[in-house]
Structure formats: C-alpha cells, structure tokens
C-alpha cells in the first residue's frame, strides 16, 4: 500500500456505528455503576479504538444523553391514530406507556442510573436536566403545550411524576405491567391540575360515565420516593 505525505493511502474504514457503541455502554451500565465505567472499557466492549469512540461521543455522560434521546425518538416515531378523541390526560398516559415499552430492553441500565443518582446529588441534577428536556417531547407527543415558562414547569412536574412511576416499573414483574399502569393512573389523577391538564378533560362527575382507565385495572402497589430519570 502506497504511503502519502499524510499517511497511508487506502480505503478509509467506515466509522463504527454509534448504536453499537451505545449498546456496549448500556450493557456495562447494567453491570456496574455509572461512575465506574471508563471510556476504555466502553471502547473494548464495543470493539473500537478510543479515536473511533471519541468521534461518536465526548464522554460517558454523552452516552446517557444519547440513550435518553434515542428513547425519545422511539416514542415519537409511533403515530397514534386515535388520540384526537382522548383527553390530554389519557393521551399522556399512552405516551408514557410507550416510553416504558421503549425502555423495557434496558431495565438493568435504568436501575443502575437510578442507583447512581441516589448516591450522587450532582449526577441526579444532571439527569434531571435531561429528563425535563425529554418530558417536553413527551408532552408535545401528547399534544400538550410546552411553550414558555408554563411549559417548562409542566415538563419538570412530569419528570418528577415519571421518575416515581419508574420506581414501580423496575419492580413490576407482571408481563402486563398492571402495577405500573395503576401507579401511572394514580399519579396522573393526582397531577392533572398541577400539570395543567384539566382543560377539556372529561371527568366522571361531568360526563355521566366512567373515564377511560389504563390497559388493566389492578391493585395499587407501594411506591418509594427515590427519584429516577430515563
């Protein structure tokens, strides 16, 4: 192979896919705490050089951010056809359940992030910033306004609400997620006014009928207070 003044001339290798690197990181995250994962470990797990890793990500926290953005993308890619006739609260219920479906293959990684957040307030704050931005997109997917200060407050409230539901989801071994859906149902019931979802919401007292519930009715389960974000 001829050598050019700038190095060896030849077909340049295609850079490794970001997805492969991200998957390697998520596997490691499911096995150990976030703050013990090194860049070289991720590179070795993904089978890439540090130079290739740097071309895709600036840090392991960038990988967390990419994981959350990819989860957003999966939720937003689903076009729900029957949302127009639903209340804002029920549209949001469906969107958040889609988010849990997208997170399901990475439950160990989500649990690890939560454990790291409980140990490190600074990490928890950084995760919260990502969670608020993510929930702005979830609200938009549910056709709920996120403009201005009111939208920012609404997204922060939803980030807290969803983190509480995640604690139930992480322990829910029911394939139908009955406990998780019951928890989400209750949280949205309590948070409707705080999230500003009361406009045009059909309530039992005014509609003369039973409002739409979650996919299954179930017995409530206890919910710990530790925050999570994903």
Poorly predicted residue ranges: 1-14, 198-227
Radius of gyration: 21 Å
Give the N-to-C terminal Cα separation.
48 Å
Question: Mean of residue pLDDT?
Answer: 83
- What percentage of amino acids are in beta strands? under 5%
The percentage helix is: 55-70%
How many helices does DSSP assign? 10
**Morphology call:** globular
Which structural category fits the helices and strands?
A: mainly alpha
Provide a descriptive summary of the structure in words.
The protein is 59% helix and 2% strand. It has a domain at 79-230. A two-stranded antiparallel ribbon has the order 1-2. It has ten helices and two strands; from the N terminus they run E-E-H-H-H-H-H-H-H-H-H-H. The chain has 230 residues and is mostly helical. A hairpin with a 2-residue loop joins strand 1 and strand 2.
């Amino acid at each position: 192979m001829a050598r050019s003044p700038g190095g060896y001339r030849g077909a340049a290798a295609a850079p490794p896919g970001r997805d492969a690197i991200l998957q390697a990181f998520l596997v490691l995250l499911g096995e150990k705490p976030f703050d013990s994962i090194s860049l070289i470990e991720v590179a070795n797990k993904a089978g890439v050089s540090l130079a290739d890793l740097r071309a895709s990500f600036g840090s392991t926290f960038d990988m967390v951010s990419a994981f959350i953005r990819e989860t957003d993308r999966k939720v937003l890619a689903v076009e729900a056809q029957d949302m127009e006739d639903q209340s804002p609260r029920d549209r949001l219920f469906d969107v958040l359940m889609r988010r849990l479906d997208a997170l399901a293959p990475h439950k160990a990684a989500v649990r690890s992030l939560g454990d790291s957040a409980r140990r490190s307030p600074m990490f928890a704050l950084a995760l919260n910033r990502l969670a608020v931005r993510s929930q702005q997109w979830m609200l938009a997917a549910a056709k709920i306004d996120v403009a201005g200060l009111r939208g920012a407050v609404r997204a922060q409230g939803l980030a807290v609400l969803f983190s509480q539901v995640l604690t139930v989801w992480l322990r829910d071994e029911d394939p139908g997620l009955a406990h998780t859906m019951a928890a989400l149902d209750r949280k949205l019931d309590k948070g409707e006014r705080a999230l500003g979802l009361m406009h045009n919401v059909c309530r039992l007292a005014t509609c003369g009928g039973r409002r739409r519930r979650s996919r299954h009715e179930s017995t409530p389960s206890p919910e710990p207070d530790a925050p999570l974000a994903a």
